[in-house]
Amino acid sequence: MHAEGFILDEPSISSTLPMVGDIDDVAFGGHFHGYVIKVGLESDSCVVSVLIDMYGKCRRAEEMVRVFDEVGRMEVGSCNALVAGLSRNSLVNNAFQVFRDFKGQGIDLNVVS
User: Fold this and answer.
1) What is the rounded CA–CA span in Å between residue 37 and residue 60?
2) How many structural domains compose the chain?
3) d(C-alpha 20, C-alpha 28), whole Å
4) 3-state SS assignment for residue 68
5) Other C-beta atoms within 10 Å of 17: how many?
6) What pLDDT is recorded for position 2?
7) Closest by alpha carbon to 86, among 73, 107, 102, 109?
8) What angle in degrees, to the nearest 10, is found between the helix axes of 61-71 and 76-88?
9) From the record, what ranges are coiled-coil (predicted)?
10) How far apart are CA 11 and CA 54, in angstroms?
11) Are residues 57 and 88 in contact, defined by beta-carbon separation less than 8 angstroms?
């Protein structure tokens, strides 16, 4: 799409990145991440959540945590993605700690949480 001149926006990135994680193509996901930074979408909560999810599915726990930490705020979507990604990567104790931090900060839990 980008090569054809389409401008990738939040909805197009948010709907495409989960597929990148599903096919475990971290190199392609890294290109998406670079694009996100280049166009200034790294603070969009949906984009952050799908970046965390993509890195988690690609078994890149360090990148997943880095994306979460760079945002600097806890939101329900990114916290859910981080907890799921940590547990998916066998980091269950870390996932429980993030969940406890999440609850301790008073963030409203949802059905995913």
Assistant:
1) 18
2) 1
3) 7
4) helix
5) 25
6) 64
7) 102
8) 160
9) none
10) 15
11) yes
Residue 1, both tokens: 């799409």
Which helix (H) or strand (E) is 95 found in, with range? helix 92-104
Buried b (16+ CB within 10 A) or exposed e, 71-82: beebbbbbbbbb
Alpha-carbon distance of 20 to 51, in angstroms, equals 10
C-alpha 87/C-alpha 57 separation (Å) is 11
Span 28-45, average pLDDT: 88
Read off the tokens for 97. 């700690």
What pLDDT sits at residue 82? 93
| Tokens at 51, concatenated | 């970046």
Segments forming the whole domain that contains residue 24: 10-104
Query: pTM of the entire structure?
Result: 0.88
Amino acid making up residue 79: C
The CA distance from 41 to 2, in Å, is 16
